[in-house]
Amino acid sequence: MMAHEQHTAQAGRAVLAPEAPGADGPPPAPARARPYAWLRRRRRWPVPLLVALLLAQMAAAMVTTAVQQTPTIDEPVYVATATDYLQEHRLRYNPEHPPLGKLLIAAGVAVADPHYDPSYTGTQGEVGRHLLYESGNDPGRLMLWARLPVIALTLLFGLVVFAFAREVVGGSGGLVALALYAFSPDVIAHGSLATLDVLAAGFVLTSAWLVWRARRRPRRYLPLAAAALGAAVATKMSALPAVPVVMLLAVVSVWHARHEAERRRKVLLGLAGAAVVALVAVGVVWAVYLAVDPRLRFTPADPVPAVHGLRGRVTDLLPLPDAYRAGMRVQFGLENYPWQGYLFGHLYTGSLWYYLPAALLVKTPLGLLALGAAGAVAVVAARRLRPAAPYLLLPPAVLLATAMTGSRDFGTRYALFVPMFLAVAAAGVLTWRWRWPGWLPGLPVGLVVLFVAVSSLWTFPYYLPYANEAFGGPANTHRLLHDSNVDWGQDLGRLADRLRQRYAGERVWLVYKGSGVPSSYGISASDPRKVPMDSVHGLLVVSDSAAAKARGGLAELIDSSRPIDQVGHSITLYRR
Fold first, then answer.
1. What is the mean pLDDT of the chain?
2. What Rg value do the Cα atoms of the chain yield, rounded?
3. How confident is the model at residue 18 (pLDDT cuts 50, 70, 90)?
4. pLDDT of residue 46
5. If DSSP codes are grouped into helix, strand and coil, which group holds residue 91?
6. What are phi and psi of 442, to 5 degrees?
7. Residue 199: CB partners within 8 Å, gap ≥ 6?
8. Nearest 10 degrees: Cα torsion 37, 38, 40, 42
9. d(Cα 133, Cα 114) in Å, to the nearest integer?
10. Residue 493 phi, psi (nearest 5)
């Protein structure tokens, strides 16, 4: 009886199974042979919908932030340089950063069409201030258009994060990675500014993803990976350490793609792939400089320091444009300056090797730290994911180790590649075996991602001073860190609104750290450091970075005043 039922069931399945094309009869009609194909197609729509929703909320957060924030310290320089590229086609300002990022910013500046006086003489900072505040331009409108290209590219890098994680782990991993990226406060904060940090980090990530894809099709993807690497190096010189890393990964990818070839041939092909990466990357850098000025005229507005010793000799040997090598000399000169740092309430001169890891612990959401660490372990431990380990872990490790040797402890913006790569690596946590019912395999991961989203939304729209819950949130960041971690001059416009709404008619004393011009926002204030302390009465307004570094008379003024208000978690108002 049982054998008869099994035979009948097998016969039934055989009847339902489609016949192979080219057998006794014609191939079956697709619609009849696959009656549930429409259902499978409908099951696919949540993934692109979720991708669109995650990127839409990220876009809304960045655009809102871009509209509300006044220019940060570096932005006027980049916008003025981009304008000079557009109108004068010359390599004159800001040689310490290659042109690509500023050319991308110039796409927005071109729409704003600002008035620009190329005959104005001054430092690059003075030229930027003149463009924004002294040339008849609307600084808010100009800055928004300058920021929009960076916002657009930040969203595109989100698609790279999704694609990278999906190819390594699967569709669910892609969504986890994209969610962590889209809710990363540091990425949102700097992705909404006309600066270069997100652009350089995103191009490095794109290069790592493309060289990973080259494991299957090296001829197609190695040149693309090299182009993305060249874009990173043509945006910020701090991306240079990624060049040997991607070259090494190219050798690994070619070795895997040609696994059937004999050993010597694989070695030669791998070295050829690394050479392609180097040549194409260098070619991209040259193309970027030629796009600014086909004659490559370099007339720096500020003096370029001489660099001697090993650094100078290596710089001279690089097959890059003169302007690029001059920019490297400027960077080396900046590295020799005795900068001040601030970490966990301690003001110091010089740099601390552990500054960036410590700052990243403060400014990275706890959920991203946890999932990223667990995912990195999974990528190394899980046999299926292990081939992706060097592509996900080596680039950020080398770049972070290099950045830790720098002399400028100014913020996590020097390591924005960490949350980007961490988000992709976090997808690997889905390969862990959770002791949950079969219908809840991803619940622990989903809860952590939700915690990251809540933490990010809670700080809206003050993403720049974000700190995670373990360190007291954004209201406490100024006690732990300074500069672009919390106060980069972004809240001058918000301060003007607050003074009009709550303190109209009061005497204001202002110590502002930023590139904005207070009078352009209707703020009438005096500098308390230029008068006797007994003369300072009324409202004392101090940028938190200036307060962190305050010594002497300013420190006495702050200590003898009563804090009564704050703006954007970056400016504190005191009553005297």
1. 90
2. 27
3. very low
4. 87
5. strand
6. -105, 10
7. 100, 101, 104, 150, 153, 235, 236
8. 170
9. 11
10. -65, -40
The closest of 448, 452, 484 to 465, measured between CA atoms, is 484
User: Side chain identity at 510, as an amino acid letter?
Assistant: L
> 136: buried, middle or exposed (CB in 10 Å: 19+, 13-18, 0-12)?
exposed
The band of 541, judged by pLDDT with boundaries at 50, 70 and 90, is very high
Residue 565 pairs in a beta bridge with 573
Do residues 103 and 83 touch, judged by C-beta distance below 8 A?
Answer: no
Measure Cα distances from 357 to 156, 194, 401, 483 in Å: 27, 25, 10, 16
Q: For tokens 């809860």, what's the residue?
A: 447
**Residue 167: how many CB atoms within 10 A of its CB?**
15
Buried b (16+ CB within 10 A) or exposed e, 180-205: bbbbbbbbbbbbbbbbbbbbbbbbbb
Q: Which residues make Cβ contacts (< 8 Å) with residue 121, sequence separation at least 6? A: 301
Q: What is the mean pLDDT of residues 511-520?
A: 94
Cis peptide upstream of residue 444 (ω within 30 degrees of 0) = no
Tell me: pLDDT of 442 over 90. no
Cβ within 8 Å of residue 518, ≥6 positions away: 492, 496, 510, 512, 525
Question: Which two tokens mark 517?
Answer: 């011009």
Residue 8 binned pLDDT confidence (cut-offs 50, 70, 90):
very low
Alpha helices for 234-299 (secondary structure H): 242-257, 263-292
List strands edge to edge, sheet with 571-575. 508-511, 539-543, 571-575, 562-567
pLDDT interval class at 261 (50, 70, 90): confident
Estimate the crossing angle of helix 242-257 against helix 263-292, to 10 degrees.
140
Rounded-to-integer distance, Cα 183 and Cα 181, Å:
5
What three-state secondary structure class fits 42? helix
Q: Cα separation of 333 and 305, whole Å?
A: 6
Query: Are 114 and 76 within 8 A, CB to CB?
Result: no
